[in-house]
Write the structure tokens for this entry.
Amino acid sequence: MGDKLEKVPFSRKRRTTISGGSSLKTNSKKSGCVENNDDNNTTTHTIINKTHVEKTAQQPVTGKPAKEKGRHETLYDKLRCHRLQESLLSSASGYSNYRGILNWCVVMLVLSNARLFLENLIKYGILVDPIQVVSLFLKDPYSWPALCLILVSNVFILVALYIEKRLSVGFVSERVGFLLHFFNLSMILCFPVAVVLLVSSMTPAGGVFALAVYTILFLKLYSYKDVNKWCREIRQAKARTLARSQSFPMSHKANGDAVQAHVTYPGNLKHRDLYYFIFAPTLCYELNFPRSLKHTGRFLLRRLFEMLFFIQLLVGLIQQWMVPTIQNSMKPFQDMDYSRIIERLLKLAVPNHLIWLIFFYWFFHSSMNFVAELMQFGDREFYRDWWNSETVTYFWQNWNIPVHKWCIRHFYKPILKRGTSKWAAQTAVFLASAFFHEYLVSVPLKMFRPWAFMGMMSQIPLAWFVGRFLRGNYGNAAVWISLIIGQPIAVLMYVHDYYIMNYEETPAAGMA
Ligand SMILES: CC(C)(COP(=O)(O)OP(=O)(O)OC[C@H]1O[C@@H](n2cnc3c(N)ncnc32)[C@H](O)[C@@H]1OP(=O)(O)O)[C@@H](O)C(=O)NCCC(=O)NCCS
């Protein structure tokens, strides 16, 4: 009888050892990995073992005392060096810490680019020349057409304010107001075009800068017109409480040290209010913008330093890396040597993409935060996590928030409200965006080619394709590829055409 009783715990222990159940429990305390498997039920082995251990544990202990059994189990555990587990790179392992691999990517990127950098220096010497940047904006030191054009834009701002003041007191009807605004906004788009095309001392870089300022002004004044109209509609709806909607500053003490004025329509129709909006880093007008409380000197200095540093870096990279690569691409284009064209395109893709990324940080983070901090503008959401985009749609919703917000508020939703389908409304937004992209490139280059327009419009079929056929990381890779490859195609097209138009001798000229 005693023998029988002694055998039972032995066989029980053996079974436990084979299944590895007790070691699983012990090890799960030691390392998080097995515990993780248990939690997630990632492996069938683990589940089977767990069940087995549980079954074994339910059997009545009829042999040696529990103390002695525990001692035996510990001894077996000490002999054991294997346990059920997956390889780290198997998806079943649940492992996700690839920080080291990411660092490796960065190291490889730096090393390979350092080689490229050295090769570039050996081949071309130092091409960076800050004086040349000035000549990009100024042909004649006594003629500053781009700056003059920007100063003239104040006229359109004042006209918009004047029209709104007249509308607010009912001096002009809504219809007349609409026509006046329409004329003013049309002039904002047409006047700089005429100046850029007719003034010979206007350089392409100066033209891009002036037109960008005018485009921003157009979007801002459009928003200003819309919001004031909405305010009038609300005022009419609350006609009986008209007196309460007159301007009166209401002071609120925030945290004891900042005073904010609450403005109501038509109290907002003042030079100070409009110019605050013109300089604020947003395209959407509001009567009461969220304001941050006070300047933080360190934050301002850091952003200023970044702005100065990254603009130098951008200029340096363009002069040293982009320009020679573009110049070397002209011959394959002339010979229509397709394999060399693709090679040049891929070569250009690297500096172009790097410059674009630096531009993104310089503009959307450093510069916009700097201006926002200076103006105590509280809404700092200038971009969202577009780099995680798994669809093209997500990218356009998140990369340029000021433009996206404007599109939604002043174009997309008003079109949808008229009963237009979503697809048609989205196409209309992309059409408008394509127009402005083309406007900013073709006019300053004085060369009308549809590459930027087509690039923007191609986003619609691309968005459909990526959304329909690609998911997760594949979708994200597709978005990155479209950004990395798409832009240099457009850049090469424009540069090639510009080169042909301006620098290449015509056959007749050559013969002469
Ligand atoms: C076209 C575009 C505006 C579509 O934006 P989207 O976010 O995909 O559009 P959605 O259909 O998801 O809806 C957006 C908004 O409209 C609202 N909406 C959708 N259908 C609506 C309807 N029938 N009626 C009223 N509102 C509607 C949604 O509720 C949403 O509102 P919310 O922003 O308050 O949440 C966007 O892709 C875009 O901005 N494209 C151009 C970007 C661009 O050119 N940028 C230039 C950068 S250089």
Remarks:
- Residues 140-241+270-289 form one domain.
- The pocket of coenzyme A is lined by residues 393, 396-397, 400, 403-404, 407-408, 412-413, 416, 422, 426, 429-430, 433 (CB under 6 Å).
- Residues 297-335 form the longest helix (39 residues).
- The beta strands are 251-254, 258-261.
